[in-house]
Amino acid sequence: MKISRIIKRRSVAKEVADKGRIQINGKLAKSSTSIKVGDQMQIQFGNRIVLYEIKELHESTKKEDAAQMYVILSETKQEDFA
């Protein structure tokens, strides 16, 4: 996630995964979970849920090329119900 710049720091990515806010192909992911091209990754950022499809994997990339590594399939906002 750091290389693709979806989440910019490893420590933050680990924290998000440890809190159960990342799913890979519909299954809860740990910070050590591997991903591959074609996987769908869902991340909850606060009240926003974003579904990505992984298009490319690289060991490193330039900032300008990072967005080509994935496509956003959907983005939804959870409403707080009182």
Can you say what the CATH homologous superfamily is?
Answer: RNA-binding S4 domain
Residue share in helix = 10-25%
- Beta-strand residue percentage: 25-35%
Report the principal-axis shape: globular
CATH topology: Structural Genomics Hypothetical 15.5 Kd Protein In mrcA-pckA Intergenic Region, Chain A
Count of discrete structural domains: 1
Which sequence of strands runs across the widest sheet? 2-1-3-4-5
The CATH top-level class label: Alpha Beta
SS-derived structural category: mainly beta
Mean pLDDT: 87
- The number of distinct helices, counting runs of at least 4 residues, comes to 1
Give the distance, in angstroms, between the N- and C-terminal Cα atoms: 33 Å
Write down the Rg: 13 Å
Strands, count: 5
Helix and strand element order: HEEEEE
CATH architecture: Roll
Which blocks of ≥5 consecutive residues have pLDDT under 50? none
Q: How would you sum up the major sheet?
A: 5 strands, antiparallel
Pfam family, one: S4
Domain RNA-binding S4: 5-40
Protein name: S4 RNA-binding protein
GO molecular function, one term: tRNA binding
